[in-house]
Specification:
Glyco_hydro_1_AS; alpha/beta; about 475 residues; 3-stranded mixed β-sheet; hydrolase; single chain; GH; disordered C terminus
């Protein structure tokens, strides 16, 4: 059964967004061309031992030079939407509006104009992990002043591109950025400050997001009529033993410390989840920290973070089984605060990387959870995908089955659970630089041959079948209108 015939497209609304996603550092290349300043990922990936086989994004998919090829790929799939990110340091080399790089502006103007000229709606992420290195030298996301700097950058983008861009994502996956970048040191900027820096970084990212949303709402929304959100990643967590109260509580804490960390302040209460704050405050006493020293409090002098999202942008990849975990005495870490140990159900197949267990049903469960806990928001699934490693398989039948199963679960969430899902974006349009995995992991609907200067794009079977779903949906909606 083909993907296009096996998905009930009638469930999806006529204006459902069918898209694919990329990120600037992962595809653009041209890292030091035409006035672009360095980002933290340029510095991080140029340090030996950080990335698989010391690979980097200096060239990546070469999308800066090969945008026309990317556009053809998007058109080939028949997408209605395309999510991509701005390279902050390509637009503002030192991260501030003191100097604007005209060639960076011209590049993104071309991308946006080409998309809208083909009736493809752009969804733009302002910062997808690649903070300008010049700002990192000033403290990066640990510094309180980053809020003002990010707001200035965002206002520049709204003023320059907002007449054509109607969907904005402020930040991508702040939980991943904070934990992997400042707790584990596995992502740029490679900081390892256990149990402390990540909460400050997350807090400043939330403050910056809220400031930008309020700026857009006050100064741009009435003319541009766009929407602003923040892309939140989350696994779906289930207790290892549903009959064990400790495991049930641990699974809920896992959700609170991952999705809830950012979703609760924005969509629910204006503050961190109660379990998160109480756990950290209790551990502060145990570890002789001043109350509130690790998990900051939101100031009443700043614009509220509650309600600062016009839709819920969700990145979902996998699910977990979770059990109770007790920290070692004196242990200072995010994991110890969370008190939850994650495992993988052995019945779930693993795709590519070890952490990526395939469980499409988890997406349906997560969508319903968001509906119930976050006041039934409109949800765009802004990333979801299936990894391939080893020899390239253009006839990627496993990925085809993954998309078939996943879209069926999304349709069930809409039809049976009443979840207001407004769009689905596959990760990714292209095989690309997958952060510390380099080019060893491939998520693309199009294969990119990184061994050749031409960086040729070849559609996978999953890309052809995804295109057929989109075409069938468009045919159905056209027919229903007639």
């Amino acid at each position: 059964m083909s993907l296009s015939k096996d998905v009930s497209v009638e469930v999806f609304a006529a204006d459902f967004a069918w898209g694919a996603s990329t990120a600037a550092y992962q595809v653009e290349g041209a890292w030091d061309l035409d006035g672009r300043g360095p980002s933290i990922w340029d510095i991080f990936s140029h340090t030996k031992g950080r990335v698989f086989e010391d690979q980097n994004g200096d060239v990546a998919c070469n999308s800066y030079r090969l945008w026309d090829e990317d556009l053809r790929c998007i058109q080939h799939l028949g997408l209605t939407h395309y999510r991509f990110s701005f390279s902050w340091s390509r637009l503002l080399p030192d991260g501030t509006t003191n100097y604007v790089n005209p060639k960076g502006v011209a590049y993104y103007n071309k991308v946006i104009n080409d998309l809208t000229g083909k009736a493809i709606t752009p969804m733009v992420t302002l910062n997808h992990f690649d903070l300008p290195q010049a700002l990192e030298h000033r403290g990066g996301w640990k510094s309180p002043e980053i809020v003002d700097v990010f707001d200035s950058y965002a206002r520049f983008c709204f003023k320059t591109f907002g007449d054509r861009v109607k969907f904005w994502i402020t930040l991508n996956e702040p939980q991943i950025y904070a934990k992997l970048g400042y707790e584990d040191g596995l992502f740029a900027p490679g900081v390892k400050e256990k149990g402390s820096a990540l909460y400050l970084v997350g807090h400043n990212m939330l403050r910056a997001h809220a400031r930008v949303w309020h700026s857009y709402h006050a100064h741009f929304r009435h003319l541009q009529r766009g929407k602003v959100s923040i892309a939140l990643n989350s696994d779906w967590a289930m207790p290892s033993d549903p009959g064990c109260p400790e495991d049930v509580a641990a699974a809920q804490r896992y959700m609170d410390f991952s999705l809830g960390w950012f979703a609760c302040p924005v969509f629910c209460t204006g503050d961190y989840p109660e379990s998160m704050r109480s756990r950290i405050e209790a551990r502060n006493l145990e570890l002789d920290f001043v109350d509130g020293q690790r998990l900051p409090k939101f100031s009443e002098d700043e614009p509220t973070v509650l309600g600062t999202a016009d839709f819920f942008a969700l990145n979902y990849y996998t699910s977990r089984k979770v059990k109770q975990a007790s920290p070692r005495p004196g242990e200072l870490s995010f994991a110890a605060d969370q008190g939850a140990e994650r495992t993988t159900d052995p019945s779930w197949p693993i795709c590519g990387v070890s952490w990526l267990a395939v469980f499409p049903e988890g997406l349906r469960k997560l969508l319903s959870y968001i509906k119930e806990t976050c006041n039934n928001p409109a949800i765009y699934i802004t990333e979801n995908g299936f990894a391939q490693m080893g020899p390239v398989e253009l006839e990627d039948l496993d990925r085809c089955q993954f998309y078939r199963d996943t879209l069926q679960e999304v349709s069930k969430a809409i039809r049976d659970d009443g979840v207001n899902v407004k769009g689905y974006f596959a990760w990714s349009l292209l095989d690309n630089f997958e952060w510390t995995h380099g080019f060893s992991v491939r998520f693309g609907l199009f294969h990119v041959d990184f061994s050749r200067d031409e960086r040729s794009r070849t559609v996978y079977r999953s890309g052809r079948e995804y295109a057929a779903v989109v075409a069938r949906h468009r045919g159905h909606t056209k027919f229903s209108k007639d």
